[in-house]
Specification:
Chain lengths: 271, 271
């Protein structure tokens, strides 16, 4: 396994790798904190599901987790990025008879975001780039990510923290790098990801926390109109945690008490 | 530019490359014959269109063509594969302010297929894997190719030369590695690629040859029923040339005279 700190010389990958040629592979972005991977079982579960659907051998959970930990530092907070590809193969789409996956791990400093992102919320916009309806790949964190790249390229304004992406029918699905939740009358709602979108680990943690706390959750379609009438909206991922949205395009939004409660749970690592 | 023969040690690519991380890049598969790239202007045009749509700088046509030729051998027939990526960048979908593309070129022997593929036709099947409707990326030969990989993984039978892929509405669009044409009453038809599919160079050459020869061509939707009633069907790409289909699943097909004429044009390099 190639392991590197972003300040080190980057590892090199065969130009023949199917991850490069076709995006035949998956990735995970994990928190490494004080020599622990606090949410490894969840990440591994998504990775394993991706391996099954893309025809890659499923790695052993404990062996891979151990290998990741063995190479990371025992202190501090870091972002680990794991890429798992279908390995090298000749020219042509046909997978080799035996896939020998290639793993690449990179370590990045844990980013420091302004305190106000969590306290007062961020500004978010709608993207023009549409997510295709694609149940075959929905939910997976695979390496075919041109839609996210093109959506993120739509704005340069540093004051805008995230862009929301809709599917071909105009339903809001997710952010370019995050999942979305909205609140209606004390209920926590998030879009269905059965047709497109990435099933984020933070999204799963929030849904599980809400269930355990007795908060009603619903998975429903999210039309843009519904969003403007919501009591509140937030975005989440494993690195940013949870950011309330204070403005969506020109529409000002509130931070309801349920969102404050959830922010507190994330802060206390109860979520 | 990294250049290699497949028998040489493969060039290595940064594990940080956006081509690997997101599939942010394009490729071309070209014929190199006696030190010439006979269809370079067409390949370059598609590549340039892809660069514009994916936010990559458009390479100079003659400089890139010259660079490809300078590294290839002056004799024999070879396949050149050119990959052009958005280069290295940090973690995150946002493209770097200045993209410095990375080029990787690999050379492969020109494949020798059985003479009977051209003379008597091949066996083709329908794939279950559906192409998502995705006008944003339609036509391009980009690096997000999981659908082709999964479709090609559907069969192992060496007797089946290609699989046809349909879109979400069930319309046949293309083969996993080829474009499709069918014939009805002396007219040459091929599916529209405005919503999905790769706009192949061989497809373009055939359409241009037909126009120049006075043969009527139409771009129309291709429902599976229509295919079974067609006078003939063939698949094409820059490497295989043109292969008539003699059987589609359990349905036997003929090779009409127009297809023989076209095969002759390909043989004589008039197409």
């Amino acid at each position: 396994m190639a392991m590197h700190d972003e300040t080190d010389t980057l590892p090199r990958l065969s130009a023949n790798d199917r991850g490069l040629a076709y995006g035949h592979g998956l990735f995970e972005t994990l928190e490494l904190r004080e020599g622990q991977l606090p949410h490894w079982p969840r990440h591994w579960r998504r990775l394993a599901e991706g391996c099954r659907r893309l025809g890659l051998p499923v790695p052993d959970r404990d062996a891979l987790g151990g290998a990741l930990l063995a190479e990371g530092p025992a202190s501090g907070r870091h972002v680990l990025k794991l890429i798992l590809t279908a390995g090298t193969g000749g020219r042509g789409y046909r997978p080799p008879p035996v896939i020998e996956p290639v793993r690449v791990v990179s370590r990045h400093p844990w980013p420091i975001y302004p305190e106000s992102h969590t306290e007062h919320g961020v500004i978010v916009r709608h993207c023009r780039t549409r997510l295709p309806v694609d149940p075959l790949l929905a939910g997976l964190k695979h390496l075919n990510r041109l839609h996210q790249v093109l959506a993120r390229a739509e704005w340069q304004d540093e004051g805008i923290a995230e862009g929301l992406m809709s599917d071909a029918d105009g339903q809001v699905i997710e952010g370019t790098m995050s999942n979305v939740f909205w609140i209606e009358d004390g209920t926590l709602l998030t879009p269905d990801l059965g047709r497109c979108g990435v099933a984020g680990i933070m999204r799963e943690r929030i849904l599980d926390w809400a269930s355990a706390t007795g908060i009603e959750t619903l998975i429903e379609p999210l039309a843009p109109d519904r969003l403007r009438q919501a009591d509140g909206l937030f975005i989440c991922n494993s690195v940013i945690g949870l950011w309330p949205v204070r403005r969506l395009d020109n529409h000002e939004m509130r931070i309801p008490s349920l969102m404050r409660e959830l922010l507190q749970a994330v802060r206390e690592r109860a979520c």
